[in-house]
Write a structure and sequence with these properties.
This protein has 3 helices and 8 strands. It is an alpha/beta fold and 124 residues long. It has a single domain (12-123), classed as 2,3-Dihydroxybiphenyl 1,2-Dioxygenase, domain 1 (Roll), CATH 3.10.180. A hairpin with a 2-residue loop joins strand 3 (41-46) and strand 4. The longest helix has 10 residues, at 18-27.
């Protein structure tokens, strides 16, 4: 039996306000709504990659712990990271880790409205 081919993946984030999260990902990060199911579930995507958002109650203590320790929830590999970083609207983005150069590339981290830490990385 041959193993199936994985064609993509969509991490699911539990969000406290679905409309607010959709607004953040579409308005600030340039995602588009791919689908919406009733009032509690949606898929958003950009450049062929997607995130699923589910209405619920994220654990505040876990979100804070992950932020304080720079534990990322999702990492996006990008091209043109400096332009992307400097193009983010400062008033709409909570920067967890400013743009920095590491041995493996350049990266920065932001937090979404529910405290998920999202990393953007341009590898060398």
């Amino acid at each position: 039996m041959q193993a199936p081919t994985i064609k993509g993946m969509s991490p699911q984030l539990l969000v406290s306000d679905l409309d607010r999260s959709i607004g953040f990902y579409t308005g600030v990060l340039g995602f588009r709504v791919q689908f919406r199911y009733e009032d509690f579930y949606a898929g958003i995507g950009r450049n062929g990659y997607s995130i699923h958002l589910k209405q619920g109650t994220p654990l505040a203590a876990e979100r804070e712990y992950r932020r304080e320790n720079e534990h990322v929830d999702i990492t996006f590999s990008v091209a043109g990271i400096e332009e992307f970083y400097h193009g983010l609207p400062a008033s709409s983005v909570d920067v967890v880790q400013h743009l920095r150069e590491m041995p493996y590339g350049k990266e920065f981290y932001i937090s979404d409205p529910d405290g998920y830490v999202i990393a953007f990385l341009e590898e060398f």
